[in-house]
Each structure stands twice: as structure tokens, then as C-alpha cells.
Design brief:
The protein is α/β, with parallel strands linked by helices. The chain has 2 domains: 153 residues, SPOUT methyltransferase, trefoil knot domain (Alpha/beta knot, 3-Layer(aba) Sandwich); 68 residues, tRNA(m1g37)methyltransferase, domain 2 (Trp Operon Repressor, Chain A). It has 8 helices and 9 strands. Strands 2-1-6-5-7 form a 5-stranded parallel beta sheet, with helices on both faces. Helix 1 links the parallel strand 1 and strand 2. Helix 2 packs parallel to helix 4, helix 3 packs across helix 5 and helix 7 packs across helix 8. The longest helix is centred in the last third of the chain and has 19 residues. The protein starts with 8 loop residues before the first strand and ends with a helix. 28% of the residues are buried. The mean pLDDT is 95. The chain binds ligand 9WO.
Length: 243
């Protein structure tokens, strides 16, 4: 049994689809951690900050073009209603690439405020204002476009929550270590020992812990070299500096 901290890590998601949350975050590790009050999740419905009786949050883009753009005045009010010094993040394909080190930084903060956009985007002025005044950071999970920032927000939260003290025990700190080592994971096997004519690598059955460690290390290096030359180059460089 793990005791909950006095002040849970607090996530606020600013969105026009609050009903999408907690979604998958109610399951698995992050759901249990929520039950244990290690973290709390709050949604802020942007529509509550609309000015007219139709609760309009978007309008057509100046200069023409497809679709709709979220209004800066409405988004600004929604965002300001929750900003309290926690890091503020706008999920966007134009952002700083998300990685394990950024997940760790955010897990070490008091929590996060996430802005999830929809439509063709958010008026640039509200992004610029919040970057300049409150350090709003644009963060991207990868080079693809979603229908909105909500699913990206969930993925980011899952990555952070499993790093909170008392959530994943040893597993998270171990895989974090392997990522900060800068290599991809080595392959894993379980029973049955033979399956569809494929055998588990002999060395893993040997009980020889030093040989197993060396095999896994070699596999991780080979996979990284083949699949992620970018990671491989920085790993080699860091290795040269001795780590
Ligand atoms: C769609 C579009 C269509 C025509 C012209 C310009 C356009 N821009 C966009 C667009 O980028 N829409 C975004 C949808 C607005 C912000 C929220 N959306 C979003 C976030 N899609 N994908 C992400 C995302 C977030 C983090 N990591 C990867 C993707």
C-alpha cells in the first residue's frame, strides 16, 4: 500500500471536449494512481468561456482557407482560469519534440496545464501572448496531424504519471534509465519456449546473468543502430565521453 502525497500532482486540460477525459487514463497504472490520489485531473471546458448564447469558440480564418480557428479571447479566458505557475503546454505538431527527459521534467513539477486545440488551430496571438507572459511551450509527440490535441494530451499525461513516486515502482525508473542510456529496448520473451517453430534465444535460458546482460546490451545497440541512426549517433558520442 502506497500513501498518497499531501499535494497530488495536478493536471488541468483545457479543451472543448472535456467528456473525452479521463478516457484511457482511468485504466491501468494511471487509473490506479488516480484512485490513490497520487495525481488529480481537472478539465476546463473552453465553451464555458464563450461570450454569446450559442457558446461560439471558433470563427473563420482571416485570409481565407479551410475550416475554423479557435478565438483568442475565449481560449485566453479559459487558460487564465487555471494558470497557477505549473508549466503550460500547447499540444501541436509544430512543438518541441516530446521525449522521456521532458516527461521527467514535467513529472518533477507540481503538475501541468495542457491546452488541446481543435479545428484548423488556435489564433496565433493567444499562443504568442501565453508564451511571452507565462512560458507556454508547444510540444509535439511526432510528425503527424491528429483531429485535435486531446489524444496527444492523454499520451503525454500517461508518460508523466507513470514517473510519479509510488506509481510504477521499479519498472518506470528502470525503463527510464534505459531511455536515458539512449538506446532502444532489447527484445523480450516468455513461455512457451518453442512457439510456431521459433525458439527463445538460448542465452536467456542459460541462467548466466553476465552473458544475458551482455546479449541484451548488444541487441539494444544493434536495434538502435539499424532503426534509429539519430539516437545511435548521440549514444556513440555520449559513450565516447564515458557516461
Ligand atoms: C489542420 C489544418 C488544416 C488546414 C490548414 C492548416 C491546418 N492546421 C491544422 C492543425 O494543425 N490542426 C491542429 C489539430 C490544431 C491543434 C490541435 N490539433 C492537433 C494537435 N493535431 N495534431 C496534434 C498533435 C499534437 C501533438 N503531437 C502530435 C500532433
Amino acid at each position: 500500500m502506497t500513501s498518497s502525497p499531501d499535494t497530488p500532482w495536478h493536471a488541468s486540460v483545457v479543451t472543448i471536449f472535456p467528456e473525452m477525459f479521463p478516457g484511457p487514463l482511468a485504466h491501468s497504472l494511471s487509473g490506479k494512481a488516480m484512485d490513490a490520489r497520487i495525481w488529480t485531473l481537472e478539465t476546463v471546458d473552453i465553451r464555458d468561456f464563450a461570450r454569446d448564447k450559442h457558446a461560439t469558440v471558433d470563427d473563420t480564418p482571416f485570409g481565407g482557407g479551410p475550416g475554423m480557428v479557435m478565438r483568442p479571447d475565449v481560449v485566453d479566458d479559459a487558460l487564465r482560469s487555471v494558470l497557477d505557475g505549473r508549466p503550460a503546454i500547447f499540444l501541436s505538431p509544430r512543438g518541441r519534440p516530446f521525449d522521456q527527459a521532458l516527461a521527467r521534467e514535467m513529472a518533477d513539477a507540481a503538475g501541468v496545464v495542457l491546452l488541446a486545440g481543435r479545428y484548423e488551430g488556435i489564433d496565433q496571438r493567444v499562443i504568442d501572448t501565453h508564451r511571452e507572459e507565462h512560458g507556454l511551450t508547444e510540444v509535439s509527440l511526432g510528425d503527424f496531424v491528429l483531429s485535435g490535441g486531446e489524444v496527444a494530451a492523454m499520451a503525454l499525461l500517461d508518460a508523466c504519471v507513470r514517473l510519479l513516486p509510488g506509481v510504477a515502482g521499479n519498472a518506470a525508473s528502470l525503463d527510464e534509465e534505459s531511455f536515458s542510456r539512449g538506446l532502444l529496448e532489447y527484445p523480450q520473451y516468455t513461455r512457451p519456449q518453442g512457439w510456431q517453430g521459433r525458439e527463445v534465444p538460448e542465452v536467456l535460458l542459460s541462467g548466466h546473468h553476465e552473458k544475458i546482460r551482455a546479449w541484451r546490451q548488444a541487441q539494444a545497440e544493434e536495434l538502435t543502430r539499424q532503426r534509429r541512426p539519430d539516437l545511435w549517433r548521440s549514444w556513440e558520442k555520449a559513450e565516447g565521453q564515458d557516461r
